[in-house]
Design a protein that fits this description.
The protein is of the alpha/beta class. The chain has helices spanning 46-55, 70-79, 108-113, 116-122, 140-150, 211-222, 231-242, 271-280, 391-397, 410-420, and strands at residues 12-17, 38-39, 43-44, 60-65, 90-95, 126-131, 135-136, 154-162, 170-174, 180-185, 199-210, 245-249, 265-266, 308-310, 312-313, 316-317, 319-321, 324-325, 330-332, 335-337, 340-341, 346-347, 352-358, 363-364, 369-375, 380-381, 386-387, 399-400, 406-408. It is 23% helix and 28% strand. The termini are far apart. Alpha-D-glucose 1-phosphate binds at residues 105, 170, 185-186, 203. Homotetramer. It catalyses: alpha-D-glucose 1-phosphate + ATP + H(+) = ADP-alpha-D-glucose + diphosphate.
Length: 421
């Protein structure tokens, strides 16, 4: 019998679903899965779900991978290798490997089903199923506690969103006890909540089950030829109809600095959303606090020297205003404003960067002017390239989003150079 004073997180494991491509990020996910995309200067998107689990007291984790997983696996091996098996803690990578029958992961539920024997070996009472591709800070212990107290078959993490914006989500209708009475996928007329008709509860893709219960459900789902083997499409709607599904509000467990601070959660699944969430970090007081020592975001930290700023002449001054500059960067005679630069970026004289998100190991050559853009890892920006001032010209060579953000990869620049020869 479990000690009543033991935190539930110590008897739980986190199963992180990290196999998705994230095609709306366009070329940013050509060579990496969405959870492996860089975010915030030095982290990757998956670090947020993993850090939430670690900070919540969960020491047993699995990451299920599928699409172009090499950089994600390498990141987890390098940045999350501090667990000690002799203390009954670990992070395991579970690539799709046709472990059952002759197919890869067919859906989110199937990703768990194909690893039932592995999860059994971990001897856990609860399983927390997480999406590995969102930016937020959350104490999962509070969600686990609600799950046990309510006697739910499944507890679903939910965002509170304005009704007029809820049509883009899978949403929950709930009663006064937070029991889910209906699950609707992107409805035209989303339901309000009992306490506020102007807001709707939208699924975060976070679920808590007892492992014994989920194990039985997954085995039935595995044998159902009519199932798509997905939590959101099959498992959750069935439990809403035939079991007890309860909503957990993100506002009840969101980790924030002050009670009046907003509950920060972002899906950075489009180029526009990715750019904005990164640029927002350069605000005077950003809504997402990456400086919080009480709830750190763990990651792989390369051993690099501090950032360096060179030259102090008119039009050739190494400077950064309202920006985040990561370790190893050299700002050589470049004006940087409202921008975020990842590790080991090198900029050269007379260049100007304005509202630019620059991923690691980029080189910006002389006289380049980059505005409202995202530059992929390892790109070499040629001399005198101007981006963000003429949308029609940018669109000839690069990816320009609906809101005017320009995405640049090395392949795009190579095609441009070949065409201009």
């Amino acid at each position: 019998m479990m000690n009543p004073h033991t935190r539930l997180s110590s008897r739980a494991m986190a199963f992180v679903l990290a196999g998705g491509r994230g095609s709306r990020l366009k070329e940013l996910t050509d060579n990496r899965a969405k959870p492996a995309v860089y975010f915030g200067g030095k982290t990757r998107i998956i670090d947020f779900a993993l850090s939430n689990a670690l900070n919540s007291g969960i020491r047993r984790m699995c990451v299920a991978t599928q699409y172009k997983a090499h950089s994600l696996i390498r990141h987890c091996q390098r940045g999350w290798n501090f667990f000690r098996a002799e203390r009954n803690e670990f992070l395991d990578i579970l690539p799709a490997s046709q472990r059952i029958d002759d197919y890869w992961y067919r859906g989110t539920a199937d990703a768990v089903s194909q690893n039932i024997d592995i999860i059994d070996s971990y001897d856990v009472d609860y399983i927390l199923v997480l999406a590995g591709d969102h930016i937020y800070k959350m104490d999962y212990e509070m969600m686990l506690q609600q799950h046990v107290d309510s006697g739910a078959d499944v507890t679903v993490g939910c965002l509170t969103v304005p009704r007029e914006e809820a049509s883009a989500f899978g949403v929950m209708a709930v009663d006064a006890t937070s029991r889910i009475t209906d699950f609707l996928e992107k409805p035209a007329d989303p339901p309000g909540t009992p306490d506020d008709p102007n807001v709707t509860l939208a699924s975060m893709g976070i679920y808590v089950f007892s492992w014994k219960f989920l194990r039985e459900i997954l085995q039935k789902d595995h044998d159902d030829p009519n199932s798509s083997h997905d939590f959101g499409h099959d498992i959750i709607p069935d439990l809403v109809k035939n079991g007890k599904a309860v909503a957990h509000r993100f506002t009840d467990s969101c980790v924030k600095d002050t009670p009046e601070a907003p509950a920060y959660w972002r899906d950075v699944g489009t180029v526009d959303a990715f750019w904005k969430a990164n640029i927002d970090l350069t605000d005077f007081t950003p809504e997402l606090n990456l400086w919080d020592h009480n709830w750190p975001i763990w990651t792989y930290s390369e051993s690099v020297p501090p950032a360096k700023f060179i030259h102090d002449e008119e039009d050739r001054r190494g400077m950064a205003i309202s920006s985040m500059i990561s370790g190893g960067c050299i700002i050589s005679g470049t004006e940087v404003r409202n921008s975020l630069m990842f590790t080991m970026v090198k900029t050269n004289s007379y260049a100007v960067l304005d509202h630019a998100v620059i991923l690691p190991y980029v080189v910006v050559n002389r006289y380049a002017r980059l505005k409202n853009c995202v530059i992929d890892r390892g790109v070499v920006i040629p001399e005198k390239l101007v981006v963000g001032e003429d949308p029609e010209e940018d669109a000839k060579w690069f990816r320009v989003s609906d809101k005017g953000i320009t995405l640049i990869t090395q392949n795009m620049l190579d095609r441009r150079e070949a065409a201009l020869k």
